UniProtKB/TrEMBL annotation:
<protein>
    <submittedName>
        <fullName>Multicopper oxidase family protein</fullName>
    </submittedName>
</protein>
<dbReference type="Pfam" id="PF00394">
    <property type="entry name" value="Cu-oxidase"/>
</dbReference>
<keyword id="KW-0560">Oxidoreductase</keyword>
<dbReference type="InterPro" id="IPR033138">
    <property type="entry name" value="Cu_oxidase_CS"/>
</dbReference>
<dbReference type="InterPro" id="IPR008972">
    <property type="entry name" value="Cupredoxin"/>
</dbReference>
<dbReference type="InterPro" id="IPR002355">
    <property type="entry name" value="Cu_oxidase_Cu_BS"/>
</dbReference>
<dbReference type="Pfam" id="PF07731">
    <property type="entry name" value="Cu-oxidase_2"/>
</dbReference>
<dbReference type="InterPro" id="IPR001117">
    <property type="entry name" value="Cu-oxidase_2nd"/>
</dbReference>
<feature type="domain" description="Plastocyanin-like">
    <location>
        <begin position="36"/>
        <end position="143"/>
    </location>
</feature>
<dbReference type="InterPro" id="IPR045087">
    <property type="entry name" value="Cu-oxidase_fam"/>
</dbReference>
<dbReference type="InterPro" id="IPR011706">
    <property type="entry name" value="Cu-oxidase_C"/>
</dbReference>
<dbReference type="Pfam" id="PF07732">
    <property type="entry name" value="Cu-oxidase_3"/>
</dbReference>
<dbReference type="InterPro" id="IPR011707">
    <property type="entry name" value="Cu-oxidase-like_N"/>
</dbReference>
<feature type="domain" description="Plastocyanin-like">
    <location>
        <begin position="152"/>
        <end position="262"/>
    </location>
</feature>
<feature type="domain" description="Plastocyanin-like">
    <location>
        <begin position="341"/>
        <end position="450"/>
    </location>
</feature>
<keyword id="KW-0479">Metal-binding</keyword>
Amino acid sequence: MAGCAATLLPTFSLAKAADGFFELTAEKGQARLYGPDGGLSDLWLYNGRLPGPEIRVKRGERVRVRFKNDLDEPTSVHWHGIRIDNKMDGVAGLTQPAVKPGESFDYDFVAPDAGTYWYHAHNMSWNQVPRGLAGPLIVEEEEPLFTPERDIILMLSDWRLDEDGVLDTESFGAMHDFSHAGRLGNWLTINGISMPEIPLQQGRWHRLRLINSSASRVLDIAPSRFGAKVIALDGQPFETPRDMDGRLRLSPAQRMDLVMRPETAEDIPFETMTGKPFRFATFKIGAGQGDDLPLKQPAINRLPEPDLTAAWELPLVMAGGAMGGMRALMEGRTRDELNQMMQDGLFWTLNGKARMDDTPMFTAKRGETILLESRNDTSFAHAMHLHGHHFRVLERNGKKLEHPDWRDTFTAEPQETVKIAFVADNPGKWLIHCHMLGHAASGMMTWFEVG
Ligand code: C2O
Ligand code: CU
């Protein structure tokens, strides 16, 4: 790593216009992803910023966003993890038509749960998100628990840079990526900054809100290695802060809220733990300012509890992909059909289907508990996301989990079976898809309906 480390700046917080709307515009912009020594990358950004501006609201608040598309192609905005009114979910082609270049769309919804969320483009996401169209969405508790300097958003994204440190735009949509682990980058930024120093205060509690906005990169984080406890996953707080040993997976779209109180003034490395520990940022500890506030756990959001005695059990089988997965798709298909699929850029199936059509995977009655048994019959990990609902992760490979935490995105390891349950209480049409965005584009996307 050349050059000197830049200090992480707080994310830019978007103010409301006079009429109460947040104004958000998708437009072309540029940034130096590699740092000051790298070239300028051509990006697609919200309000010209990387990451997109922070939208911060209070729990239960009505959120209105006047969105304008100044790109050359249609787009839409999805509010990831919000149990939202279906019309406002931002899925181009399912819940709204894509917003055409030069046009606008008003999003208007209520944010029912406090926590760490994010927003991102949801039309050709595999192309739009890894060019920069993503930003943090923070829903505050009634009383903020941390002072603003101690409530820190860390939006992690990986990028594929060429030898000049410039975003490689030529390889977008590469079929090899789609049929393997997705488009993986070779460079990591936090809030758009390469290898930053993150200022923290000695002897003071901080909240760190980690958001993985990468298109495909799974990040392994070991909070206990840097003295942090976990207080929430995917926006939903635990009952009490948890010391979690070992590596935790932060898959694409997942969030992890940590609390941390540095006891000494020494630098603390921030590392990913996939393979050898790799330092991608440094916590720089400065003098404590003002009082330390006691560690308070954010209040639990009230989510509908699944009723397992009356659950509708459904399989969600992931198949396909390289490394033998495509061969398995031969079952029930002719060679010609399989070749045609690949020519169409489809490499994966969910419950045997590679292309989403007008038929939902299932239609639930409102209030019904759905128990999904997902089976990953592929050689790759997937990050499965359900729109409009949070679910409890109950079991992995037949083993009940000690903490059946709420999530909106779960990781399914190769050959793993994961059981999740949720109450289908939000009427409308909702996607289920892999958040490795190239996988979603090449078959791993379906939908369900709540009547
Ligand atoms: Cu975060 Cu369907 O997306
Ligand atoms: Cu996937």
